[in-house]
Amino acid sequence: MDVRNPEHADLIDWKALKSQCDFIASRQAENAAATRTALLAAIKDANAKGRARAEELLMADGGGLACAMRISRLQDHIITILHDFALNHVFNADNTPEASRLGVAAVGGYGRGTLAPGSDIDLLFLLPAKKPAWVEPAIEFILYILWDMGLKVGHATRTVEECIRLSKTDMTIRTAILEARYICGQRALLSELETRFDNEVVRNSGPQFIAAKLAERDERHRKSGDTRYLVEPNVKEGKGGLRDLHTLFWISKYYYRVRDTQDLVKLGVLSRSEFRLFEKCDDFLWAVRCHMHFLTGKSEERLSFDIQPDIARRLDYHDRPGLTAVERFMKHYFWMAKNVGDLTRILCATLEEQQAKDAPGLTNVISRFAHRPRKIAGSPQFVEDRGRIALSGPDVFKEDPVNLIRFFHVAEMKELEYHPDALSRITRSLALIDNSLRDNEAANAIFLSILTSHKNPAMTLRRMNEAGVLGRFLPEFGKIVSMMQFNMYHHYTVDEHLLRTVEVVASIEAGRDKDINPLAVSLFPSIEDRQVIYVAALLHDVAKGRPEDHSTAGAKVARKLCPRLGMTPKQTELVAWLIEEHLTMSMVAQTRDLNDRKTIMDFAERVQSLERLRLLLILTVADIRAVGPGVWNGWKGQLLRTLYYETELQLTGGFSEVSRKERAAAARIRLAEALEGWNQKDRKTYSKLHYEPYLLSVSLEDQIRHAGFIRDADKAGKALATMVRTRSFHSITEITVLAPDHPRLLAIITGSCAAAGANIADANIFTTADGRALDTIMINREFKNDEDEIRRATSIGKLIEDVLAGQKRVPEVIAIRTKGKKRNTTFTIAPAVTMSNTLSNKFTVLELECLDRPGLLYEITSVLSDLSLDITSAHITTFGEKVIDTFYVTDLVGQKITNENRQANITARVKAVLAEVEDEARAGMPSGIIAPPPIRGVKKTRSGA
Fold first, then answer.
1. Positions of the region Uridylyltransferase (predicted)?
2. Domains of the chain: residue spans and CATH
3. pLDDT digit string (tens) for 517-549?
4. Stretch 282-305: mean pLDDT
């Protein structure tokens, strides 16, 4: 690329700057320090103005590559001026013979003539064979000025001989020299380096260099997650980013000995349209990167959530129905990243073919004979070439477009890798995928076979997606290719999430996930139709980005697409139902009280059959696990298992007809009998402590543990006590609190957890018959080691005791913890509050949705106490930045909240808290104070009796 292209105008008047520097030298020649200070100020000011001008032009014309070239040219002028100033005015070396002068070259990205605003400036100072005494001091002078300007400068000072010797053994140095570009000084030194490098290093070493660069690329991809569909991509180093394009350029330049990417068209490596795509990707990625650097004021390479909206605005994206401006921008970004992958595949295919032709005589003949392509039985369209599937002829796809689908099916059946030339031809043949192929019965049957394969369907589908086939064959899927959802919950683009969901389903079916999802693995063999679950997994989010609810719209897509795939009406309706309900089981499990029979009855009414229940459980597990690392945990698994088993009982008529009172009495007898080694008095005392809700919802094992905990506290004379237990499989740690009942008890406990930085997942709240509260708080596990986790939970328990004893105040502890922490301003979620009296037979269900923040649960529970509401159970669910908290509440006499005026008041007060509106009723809120035990009626209603 020609960095001297006149269309890329200078950002500063560099001739005027040079005159200014000469003037500084003439005026202050006797005072070296003053001269240097004045020079630095002049150069620094020019650089700042030049970069400000570069940003103005970028905002005006949007040219990312042009911006990078302008900044590179600006840097060239500054270095040239500093070089000349050092020689002419500092070291009086202007009369030094040309052959004794140093040469200054740009290397790395700077060598390509492109610089982002925050990029490192990589310089190579070439030393003459006989260097004068002033050379090294002059280099130091230049470098120190650049460093004092605040620039990040990487440099090497070598002779030509040293460059050649080191480049033979170090691939990084070889790559840097490959892109060396003359800036100033002795040009002959760089010319000598280029000639010797070409003859002594590059010649006959193309395959070695290509292998090294591709291996380097693969390792870089592995470190960044090996997917180009991460929703916070690294624009420079990530898969499909600028470094991948640079790798293509390095390989092309090294192997084909070209100076400009455009030369690859003349050589037939890229078509003219592919070259235009190369330029388009390069320009777009440079625009994004330059905007990122200008916006953040540093070399920020990760396109994080907090800057994505600003970059979208800078690039002039706007909202559209179903997609926000930032989501449209990121979809464009991922399309470009995918295009980079296509170009990589095309270039690699051409290189491999070229290397085979270039192999020397006899070796080439032997190699071709030994690795001659072999026919694939039953598939004459394809051949096997060294473990890879290749095409038997150039017109395989034209002769029968079904081969575009069959190609992937044969590769999967025969467990073959993909020949890059075949993938390149597929990319160039996508126009053959039209409505006639989409309606082709054989093509659809083959696709369904791929999707439901017992081997690795997700890998095959991913290859189809990367080649562009999947989105063309299923246009509904094509609409969500590269689409992102602007939230912290989803880690991948929608298409990548769907493919990962299929991957998890296949893993469950193969039994590989027995330790993670034992129930799902055990249920899969009993599924009547495995095709249904795979199709639902692939399509469950296919309608994302539409104005309509994606579950409802997705069901409509399924009803249209499934018959095309050859599925029966029964299968089609089951797939549509699964897509329409794919979020239901997760939401019920995480936000509802599973001990409330109405919850189970309502859910069972929606599911209606065991087959649907099994399928929905497996789809729900796969969907959550495919969201991203760390989203799934054992606690979610436990909630889903509980919901499954309770619903299974309801569907099979397994619920007991015995009254609650009789079942509670039986449970009390079982507890008394299970307290082995206890005297009769203690058995009677501690088994009578609990009301029906406790006895019917808490396991006997936990009842025994709680009884021992309460008895130990009584013997020690403790009014306050805490107990911790880790549940490693569930990724949950329990903190059980025993304390005198108190209207603000839950608020104090949740506030203490917030002050300790613990995330609460759930809360079981009970009151004993003697006026004490027995509350168990489930917090998300933080440490892998049980000893560390117990130590952490014990310290939180101690903090809860201190707050309850009045030794510490929650607001003060939370304030200390959150001091200086930046609030999340990237995402906005409109606070929502709903109250329902139909979700439970005994309680009013209060559901809140808002942006998560430290201390939120404490604020909510405090205002609920202010409103004289008795919280029976709390369920806390976090989806990235969004939190959904559900509280089962009654008034202080144990009744539902039915008065409309009171409901409106509660909704308004809670919504004010969610929106962080100042609420006078909360001012002066007591904290850290133990109130007198409430009246007996309040104690009972708190337990739900």
1. 1-377
2. 14-203 (3.30.460.10), 209-357 (1.20.120.330), 373-440+462-473 (no CATH), 480-655 (1.10.3210), 722-942 (no CATH)
3. 899 999 999 999 999 999 999 999 999 988 889
4. 92
Q: What is the number of other CB atoms lying within 10 angstroms of the CB of residue 1?
A: 15
Q: Which residue has the higher pLDDT, 72 or 423?
A: 72
Whole-angstrom distance, CA of residue 254 vs CA of residue 248: 10
CB atoms within 10 A of CB 201: 20
Share of the chain above pLDDT 90, in %: 46
Residues 497 and 594: their CA atoms lie apart, in Å, by 29
Band of pLDDT at residue 183, cut at 50, 70 and 90: very high
Specify whether the CB–CB gap between 718 and 706 falls below 8 A.
no
Distances 351 to 339, 388, 427, 521 between C-alpha atoms, Å? 18, 16, 17, 45
| Separation of alpha carbons 671 and 710, rounded Å | 14
Higher per-residue pLDDT: 214 or 520: 520
Beta bridge partners of 870: 890
- Do 937 and 771 contact (CB within 8 A), yes or no? no
Please say whether the beta carbons of 376 and 274 come within 8 A.
no
User: Positive or negative CA dihedral for 582, 520, 607, 557?
Assistant: positive
pLDDT category of residue 877 using cuts at 50, 70 and 90: confident
Distance between CA 26 and CA 771 in Å, rounded? 92
Name, of 174-183, 263-272, 807-816, the range with top average pLDDT. Answer: 174-183
Q: pLDDT band at 612, cuts 50/70/90?
A: very high
pTM: 0.76
The candidate with the shortest Cα–Cα distance to 621, out of 596, 643, 652, is 643
Both tokens assigned to 877: 């669910």
- For every residue of 711-744, DSSP letters joined together read HHHHHTT-SSEEEEEEEGGGTEEEEEEEEE--TT
Cβ proximity of 25 and 38 under 8 Å: no
* C-alpha–C-alpha distance, residues 225 and 875, integer Å: 33
C-alpha 752/C-alpha 764 separation (Å) is 16
Distance set, CA 151 to CA 119, 421, 835 (Å): 9, 44, 58
